[in-house]
Design brief:
With 478 residues, the chain is of the alpha/beta class. It is built from 18 helices and 14 strands. The protein has 2 domains: 258 residues, 3-Layer(aba) Sandwich (Rossmann fold), CATH 3.40.50; 113 residues, no CATH class.
C-alpha cells in the first residue's frame, strides 16, 4: 500500500500468458490492464488472472466484446496500436494514475537468431511501447527483451535498438532515470540459464526526490557476486541477485517430485516433507511467496507426455547415453561423411566408444547395446544431421527454454519435455494452468501461440517477483 492506502497499479503490455504479471502481482501490485494480441496466450492470461474459464464459448464471447469493455475488464485481446488510437481507452487509462508499465515487446526482430532487420515491422512495437509510456506517464517502467537488442545494426550503420530506446525513455514526458540491466534468471532462483536485457526506469521527479543512484553502464546480475570497480555504488532500482555457486537451482530441483504420471510423492509423504528441496515445494504452493495450507491437486495440469515413434525413443535414449559418457552428438554425422569409407567410419566410431560403459544403458535402465560393435551399428541406424536436440543435465540449470518443444530431452525418460516441466524450469507454479492447444505446425507458428510457445516466450515469474518487490519498496514510500 502507498500512503494514500490504495494498491499500486500496473499495466502489462505484450503480456503473453502472464509470466511478468504473475511475479509483479505476487510482489503486491494490482492489475489495471494487460494487453496481448494472441487469443491463445490471452486465454491463459484470462483464466489465471481474470476469471476461470469453463468452456470455449465463454472465451469466444469475451473476445468479441468491444475494445473499451475489454479495457475496463482489464484484458485487451488486440494489438497495442488499437488502444493507442482509441481516445476513450487512453483517457480511461490516464485517469487510473498508473504506477508501473511493464512489458516485453516481441523480440524476434532484435534476436541474434533472426535476421535483425531494422525495418522489420516487429521492431516498431518497442516504439509503440514508448508512445504508450508518454501518454500514460507511469511512475516506473520495465521493458524486457533479448540480449541481441544491445548489438548495433552494423550493416545499416544504425545504433543498437537498446541504446535508442534508453535515450527515448529518458526524454519522455517529465523524463525518466533509466538503468540498463542484464539479468540472468538463474541468479533469482530459477533453474534455467536465461539472460535477458531490461530497461528499468523511474520518473525523474521520484528518482530525484529519493536521491536514487543510476549508472549508464549495463548492470549484470552476476555483479551481486563480484561487483566491478567501475561501479562506485549499486543501482537502487536493480533487484538483488542471491543465487550463485552451489545455490543455483538445477533441473533436479525442478523435477525432483515429478515422474511420467505427475506427482510421485504426496505432500503428506515423509520423504517429501523431509527433503530440503525448497523449489519443488514452492512450485506446489498456492502462491509464489506464501506456502499454502491447502494441499495441491493430485492431478498435475499440463503434464501430458508427447507421442514419439519407436525410432525417436531409441534416439533419445542414445542421446542420453552419449551425454552421460561425455560424447558429442555430432557423431551422428559420421555415417554421412562422404570422404570416408564405411570401414573408416566404423573405425572412427569404435575409437570414440572405446573405454566407455558397456553394456550401454539409458538412464531408465534400457540396454542399448551389449558391445562397441552394437553401439556402432546403433549410430548407423539412427544417423541424423539434426543435432539441436539434447538431454537436460540433471545437476545443472536448464539452457534457455524456447518456444519449440522438440529440442530439449528429459534427463531420465526418453521423450521431450511436457508443458508443465518447461513451466517448472521457468518457475511457473503448478496451480498456473496453460490454456489453448499444446503445440502447432510450422506453417502456423507465425500467428499461433500454443502452450509450449506461451511458456518459452514468458518472463520467468521469479525474476518478475524480484523486480516487483524492489519497485514496491521504492514506490510505496511516496
Amino acid at each position: 500500500m502507498n500512503k494514500k492506502g490504495k494498491n499500486l497499479k500496473y499495466i502489462d503490455l505484450f503480456a503473453g500468458c502472464g509470466g511478468l504479471s504473475l511475479g509483479i502481482e505476487n510482489a503486491g501490485f494490482e492489475l489495471a490492464l494487460a494487453l496481448e494480441k494472441s487469443p491463445m496466450a490471452c486465454e491463459t492470461f484470462y483464466h489465471n488472472f481474470i476469471k476461470p474459464l469453463n468452456n470455449k464459448e465463454e472465451w469466444a464471447k469475451y473476445c468479441a466484446k468491444p475494445l473499451i469493455e475489454q479495457v475496463k475488464e482489464k484484458l485487451v485481446v488486440n494489438e497495442l496500436k488499437t488502444v493507442l488510437d482509441n481516445p476513450e481507452a487512453m483517457e480511461y487509462l490516464r485517469k487510473l494514475d498508473i504506477d508501473l508499465v511493464a512489458g516485453g515487446p516481441p523480440c524476434q526482430g532484435f534476436s541474434m537468431a533472426g535476421r535483425r532487420n531494422p525495418k522489420d515491422a516487429r521492431n516498431q512495437l518497442p516504439w509503440q511501447f514508448m508512445e504508450f509510456i508518454e501518454k500514460v506517464n507511469p511512475k516506473a517502467v520495465i521493458m524486457e527483451n533479448v540480449v541481441g537488442i544491445t548489438r548495433d545494426f552494423s550493416k545499416e550503420n544504425e545504433k543498437a535498438p537498446f541504446n535508442q530506446l534508453k535515450e527515448t525513455l529518458e526524454n519522455l514526458g517529465e523524463g525518466y532515470f533509466v538503468q540498463p540491466v542484464q539479468l540472468n534468471a538463474m541468479h533469482f532462483g530459477v533453474p534455467e540459464h536465461r539472460p535477458r536485457m531490461m530497461l528499468l526506469g523511474i520518473r525523474k521527479d521520484i528518482a530525484e526526490n529519493k536521491n536514487m543512484y543510476f549508472s549508464d553502464n549495463i548492470w549484470k546480475s552476476d555483479y551481486d557476486e563480484n561487483m566491478p570497480k567501475t561501479y562506485k555504488n549499486r543501482p537502487d532500482i536493480v533487484p538483488r541477485a542471491k543465487y550463485f555457486g552451489n545455490k543455483i537451482r538445477t533441473v533436479k530441483d525442478a523435477f525432483w517430485d515429478l515422474d511420467n504420471n505427475g506427482y510421485k510423492l504426496s505432500e503428506d509423504d515423509i520423504l517429501y516433507n523431509n527433503n530440503g528441496n525448497g523449489f519443488a515445494k514452492l512450485m506446489r504452493s498456492s502462491k509464489l511467496i506464501i506456502q499454502s495450507k491447502n494441499k495441491s491437486s493430485a492431478i498435475l495440469p499440463n503434464h501430458i507426455n508427447r507421442n514419439h515413434s519407436d525410432k525417436a525413443i531409441k534416439r533419445f535414449r542414445l542421446y542420453q547415453y552419449l551425454q552421460c559418457e561425455n560424447i558429442r552428438a555430432r557423431i551422428f554425422n559420421i555415417p554421412f561423411e562422404e570422404e570416408l569409407t564405411e570401414a573408416e567410419k566404423r573405425a572412427t566410431l569404435t575409437k570414440i566408444f572405446t573405454g566407455k560403459k558397456i553394456p550401454a544403458k539409458s538412464p531408465d535402465g534400457q540396454v542399448l547395446a551389449n558391445s562397441i560393435d552394437g553401439l556402432v551399428d546403433l549410430v548407423f541406424e539412427l544417423a541424423t544431421k539434426k543435432h539441436s536436440q539434447r538431454p537436460l543435465q540433471i545437476n545443472k540449470p536448464s539452457p534457455t527454454v524456447l518456444t519449440l518443444p522438440d529440442d530439449l530431452i528429459h534427463p531420465k525418460f526418453p521423450r521431450i519435455m511436457t508443458v508443465r516441466e518447461l513451466a517448472r524450469l521457468q518457475s511457473f507454479p503448478d496451480y498456473f494452468v496453460f490454456k489453448s492447444k499444446e503445440t502447432t505446425g510450422s506453417d502456423r507458428r507465425k500467428f499461433e501461440v500454443p502452450q509450449y510457445s506461451q511458456v518459452g516466450n514468458a518472463v520467468a515469474p521469479l525474476v518478475a517477483l524480484a523486480l516487483g518487490e524492489n519497485l514496491i519498496k521504492i514506490l510505496s514510500e511516496l
